[in-house]
Amino acid sequence: GRSLSINPTDDRLWVLAANWYYEGDKNVSSARALLQRAIRVLPFSQRIWVQYFKLELLYREQVIQRLQILLDEEKPKEEEETEEEENEGGSLPFKLDAKEKGKQREEEEEPEDPLKEVKEH
């Protein structure tokens, strides 16, 4: 902090300070704010722009990894729900007697022809 106030035009100091916030303090927001301030002080410093870009890419990668972890934790729950939904429609909680089974088979085997009336006329 003090080094930056003494020599604010040294882009290496800005990068070192931002790196400390990012890696040492694990504070992406502070590192980002510091590099944005550095850009305002030294808008043509290639080193600062490159480090700012790298910081954003690293942060994006962290967010993606966290999201993948969260999605992986939720995946088994979704699979269980899908299996429950499949069982809801596929199996019956009671057994049909012989007459009902016969009716059900007839309905399944002979779908109604929508053109039946047109063909008869």
Automatic annotation (TrEMBL):
GO cellular component annotations of the record: Pwp2p-containing subcomplex of 90S preribosome; small-subunit processome
SUPFAM superfamilies noted in UniProt: TPR-like
InterPro entries the record matches: TPR-like_helical_dom_sf (IPR011990), Utp6 (IPR013949)
Superkingdom field: Eukaryota
Gene Ontology BP annotations: maturation of SSU-rRNA from tricistronic rRNA transcript (SSU-rRNA, 5.8S rRNA, LSU-rRNA)
Biased composition regions of type Basic and acidic residues, renumbered to the chain: 96-106
Disordered: region residues: 74-121
Sample GO molecular function, one term: snoRNA binding
Comp. bias intervals (Acidic residues): 79-88
PANTHER family hit by this protein: HEPATOCELLULAR CARCINOMA-ASSOCIATED ANTIGEN 66 (PTHR23271), U3 SMALL NUCLEOLAR RNA-ASSOCIATED PROTEIN 6 HOMOLOG (PTHR23271:SF1)
Annotated protein name in UniProt: Uncharacterized protein
Species of the source: Paramoeba aestuarina
